[in-house]
Amino acid sequence: MGRPLYVIGIEGEARPEIETYDHGWSRLGAIGNALDLLKKAECEDVCIIGPVKRPDFSKLKLDWTGTKLLPRVLNAARKGDDALLSFFVRWMEEQGFAVVGAEDVLGDLVAPEGAVGTISPGETALKDIELGKQVVHALDNLDVGQGAIACDGLVLAVEAAEGTDEMLRRTGELPITVRGTPENRRGVLVKLPKPSQDRRVDLPMMGTKTVELAAASGLAGIAIEAGGAIVFDRSEVARLADEVGMFVYAFPKTSVGQPE
Questions:
Q1: What whole-number distance in Å separates Cα of residue 103 and Cα of residue 95?
Q2: Per-residue pLDDT reduced to its tens digit, 228-260
Q3: What is the value of pTM for the model shown?
Q4: Which of 31, 144, 147, 209 could form a disulfide with 139 if both were Cys (CB 3.0 to 4.6 A apart)?
Q5: d(Cα 61, Cα 248) in Å, to the nearest integer?
Q6: Where does the record place the LpxI N-terminal domain (predicted)?
Q7: Other Cβ atoms closer than 10 A to 146
Q8: Phi and psi based region of residue 96 (left: phi greater than 0; alpha: psi -120 to 50; beta: remaining)
Q9: Which residues have C-beta within 8 Å of that of residue 151, sequence separation ≥ 6?
Q10: How many other C-beta atoms can be found within 10 angstroms of the C-beta atom of residue 96?
């Protein structure tokens, strides 16, 4: 973006590498402190990025602003993660900040259409991709997750509160009669934004760890939505995927149809 950068790290969540930038630290319940840091740094735009574990709200150490907001936060949290994130977006806007999406800040990391490495999905994998897309779209109103794993027309897993990594691990524990193996790869991890979510927050992300876990689970590949996912360290993702014989593929953003 060509603009000064200021980073607020959530204690216990953000990596220490943020200290190479102009930065501040705040605990999860200290909303007023985070707001003061943003104002002191004269920030105008805010980008919310990176995973944060859902907290035990009864154990949060709240500051005064956090205490005042707690009833509204709890009400949103009961409706799901999308509702909770949307609440914080609205609240930040009420404080005078413009909330921008990760793709606006990290545009060079947004996945373009096509294969990331040299391997592309075959006909069976393309059908599994369509099925995975259907699952994510169908569960949108339930605010469940952004990912699903399909193999030969069978849904093996749906991402829920545990996240993508744990979903991949439990897929690797399924009987090999329904999933692939490193010697005979089958199945696809499909990740895309939910239709109703605010795409400025919680855009799907993947990196080398995603490839490693998918490879260990015997999957044939990973599919993400072009323009709808962040790929960290793309060149290394491509190298690793090629090395293990998997595809990483960004499918075009299209309407969801019925798998053949």
A1: 23
A2: 999 999 999 999 999 999 999 999 987 565 444
A3: 0.85
A4: 144
A5: 41
A6: 2-109
A7: 26
A8: left
A9: 128, 178, 179, 180, 186, 187, 188, 219
A10: 9
